[in-house]
Amino acid sequence: MTADKQRFARWQLFAAKRSALKANALLPSVLKRGRILDIGCGFFRNFHAEMDFSEKYGLHKGIDRELRMDLKRRHDVALVDIDLEYSARIPFDSSFFDVVTMLAVWEQLGMKWRLRIVQEIERVLKPGGVFIMTTPTRCTKGVLDLLVRLSVLSPVEIRGYKATHSRKQILAMLKDGGFPMSSMASGYSELFMSIWVRAKKEPNLFELEELEPLES
User: Fold this and answer.
1) With 50 as the cut, is the pLDDT of residue 216 above it?
2) Closest Cα to residue 35, out of 71, 77, 65, 67?
């Protein structure tokens, strides 16, 4: 393995571990035994692999069949090879998951795909289900560029960064995608280098209320 690839692997593992710790802290304990989907789960051990969910799924592009079979056998994680930027839908039924996570992936998605992906996340969540995401803040890209110039990181480690959003912009897009603003919580972690957001899918009140009979 080349030095660049070794640094890249270490960086990915570090970033995944930090995001996983934050996501785990944000997960309501009552949902931790349900069904979870991790979007952009990566090629390394997934953060939900050792958690006690009843069913664990992951989406990532470029995961080969052998790796998928290995993770299913060792950690009971079902991985799907898919590129969400070129797929119209997340390949699961509506109201299927208790939890959907997207950890350090938002910044790697093309701008024009983000709203559609949020809409799909809202669709596959059960009413009362939770979406959790983390993403670097805008200042992080400048710090990473400096680390590349200092040869601490290699360019390959940040080539996936396409664009960052402010916390306010992310919350607005989640609202446009179907999550009520009242269901959202957000904040910063990693010395203000990362944004975290948690949004809950609310039940459809029209489905819960019995319709009054029409007056004759």
Assistant:
1) no
2) 77
d(C-alpha 53, C-alpha 35), whole Å = 6
Domains and CATH numbers, the chain: 3-200 (3.40.50.150)
Using DSSP's 3-state secondary structure scheme, residue 89 falls into: coil
Task: Single out the residue of 29, 97, 18, 23 nearest to residue 57, CA to CA.
Answer: 97
State how far the Cα of 101 lies from the Cα of 99, in Å rounded to an integer.
Answer: 7
- As a whole number of angstroms, the distance between CA 24 and CA 126 comes to 19
DSSP-assigned letter for residue 140:
H
Kindly tell me if the per-residue pLDDT of 26 is higher than 60.
Answer: yes
* Residue 92 burial (CB count, 10 A): 17
Residue with tokens 């690839």: 5
Token pair listed for 208: 């819960």
Give the SS3 label for residue 158.
Answer: coil
Q: Hey, is 163 helix, strand or coil?
A: coil
Rounded to two decimals, the pTM is 0.79
Angle subtended by helix axes 111-124 and 167-176, to nearest 10: 60
Handedness of CA 149, 105, 32, 66 (dihedral sign): negative
Assess contact for 188 and 195: CB atoms under 8 A.
Answer: yes
Give tens-digit pLDDT for 137-165.
Answer: 876 666 666 665 666 555 555 555 666 78
